[in-house]
Write a structure and sequence with these properties.
two-stranded antiparallel sheet; 415 residues; 12 strands; 48% helix; globular; mainly alpha; 16 helices
Length: 415
């Protein structure tokens, strides 16, 4: 696999802002792991079939008809069979283009607010009195905040997110929206606010991406222009590249190269490549999830999105935890998994890269277990049905509270 994709390794900073670079460099890490040359993890490919069987079983439990939707934020807006976004959408009378802008407003803000909540945080739904946690809680909390107009500077148009309002958003307002306080701590709350402030500043400065009014949903217009220039076709990897270009400045404390923000890109010595990008590996986890989540609004507005398989699996702790819990990945140091680790720490970078590459390896095994083709179960559906759900399920079976097998320090912008 690596030899076929080596051309995608790239040698310049801009080459790192692509899904192809994520996949190629993750495969380079896997090659080193299979050869036993990585410092932190051993790779046991013979254990992949057991993980694939568990993922297939999870898909059968969640989707008995084996009709699995693609991985996207929209799935988390469905609680107890009720699609809360659709309820709101049915109240909005507008054309399909403005509806796409509204959906992009919502999904960008919701994805950026989704980084791990921590084991203690809970959100009580005032409509149902149900208590939600983790991604589902963050999703519905962000949806309700959006619907209330928290992110819009125009009270007459609550369903939007704009630079002016983001700049004025306070920690108390964000905490109230997420019911976070000393008794109900939300990990990385300050980091989330910083991210939204930086998003506002970026939107105000970039009219090409966000328009004169700095509206986040105007990303639709940029992507529509790019599709028009290609005769109406918009490859999904181009969505990611546009997002990385538009959102690059929002990430705090990240690497830059020749003045270009690299986003979710980190150092690892196993990534030995020629040129200025030696030792660097990108993941673009939140940006790729956002790209997946923008496909449906774009399609609903009439754009043709192609090459969805060009996006990669997501380097996050549920997918990665699946491979650790099934022993596909083994920590070489006994205390590694109990040591608090930051996203920039070398073991985490190594683990995330192996996760991306192994998702490509496990997907065909899952399809074989289910008797489905790649067309019937693309990678986006394997993730949804899928590895993410199976990673959460095995975590609950193995550890109280369903915590991941790695002890992570979250700043609210990665995990």
């Amino acid at each position: 696999m690596l030899s076929d994709s080596r051309r995608d390794l790239g040698t310049t900073a801009r080459d790192l802002l692509t899904a192809a670079a994520v996949r190629a460099r993750a495969n380079l890490m896997l090659e080193e792991g299979l050869a036993g040359r990585l410092p932190h993890f051993n790779v046991r490919p013979e254990r992949l079939p057991a993980a694939a069987a568990y993922v297939a079983e999870t898909i059968r439990l969640n989707y008995p008809a084996l009709e699995v939707p693609p991985h996207a934020r929209w799935r988390h807006f469905v609680i107890s069979g009720v699609d809360r976004w659709t309820e709101i959408a049915n109240r909005i009378e507008t054309d399909e283009i403005e509806r796409a802008r509204i959906r992009i407003d919502l999904v960008v803000i919701s994805v950026l607010l989704d980084a791990g909540a921590g084991p203690s945080w809970r959100w009580r739904d005032p409509r149902t009195e149900r208590t939600l946690a983790r991604s589902e809680g963050l999703a519905i909390a962000s949806l309700e905040a959006f619907a209330s107009g928290l992110f819009s500077s125009d009270p007459a148009r609550p369903y939007r997110v704009d630079a002016e309002r983001l700049a004025r958003l306070t920690l108390n307002e964000l905490a109230a929206a997420f019911q976070a306080d000393a008794a109900n701590p939300l990990e990385g709350l300050e980091g989330r606010l910083t991210l939204l402030h930086r998003l506002g500043a970026t939107a105000a400065a970039d009219q090409m991406s966000f328009g004169a009014d700095g509206r986040i949903g105007n990303l639709y217009d940029r992507l529509a222009r790019e599709a028009s220039a290609r005769g109406g076709d918009l490859p999904a990897p181009m969505i990611l590249t546009a997002l990385l270009d538009a959102l690059g400045p929002i990430w705090p404390g990240r690497l830059t190269l020749v003045g270009l923000p690299l986003g979710d890109t980190w150092h690892h010595p196993a990534i030995a490549v020629p040129g200025e990008t030696d030792g660097l590996i990108p993941f673009h986890k939140l940006s790729q999830w956002l790209a997946y989540s923008m496909i449906e609004p774009l399609q609903e507005a009439g754009l043709e999105v192609s090459e969805i398989g060009g996006l990669t699996g997501l380097a996050e702790y549920r997918n990665g935890g699946l491979f650790l819990d099934f022993g596909v990945l083994e920590a070489r140091q006994r205390d590694l998994l109990s040591t608090p680790l930051k996203p920039s720490d070398e073991p985490v970078v190594e683990w995330r890269a192996l996760t991306v590459a192994l998702l490509d390896r496990v997907a065909p095994l899952v399809r074989a277990e289910l008797g489905l083709s790649e067309q019937a179960l693309p990678l986006a559906s394997v993730l949804e049905g899928g590895t993410w759900a199976a990673g959460r399920r095995i975590a609950r079976e193995r550890r109280e509270g369903g915590t991941p097998p790695v002890t992570l320090i979250s700043d609210g912008s990665i995990f």
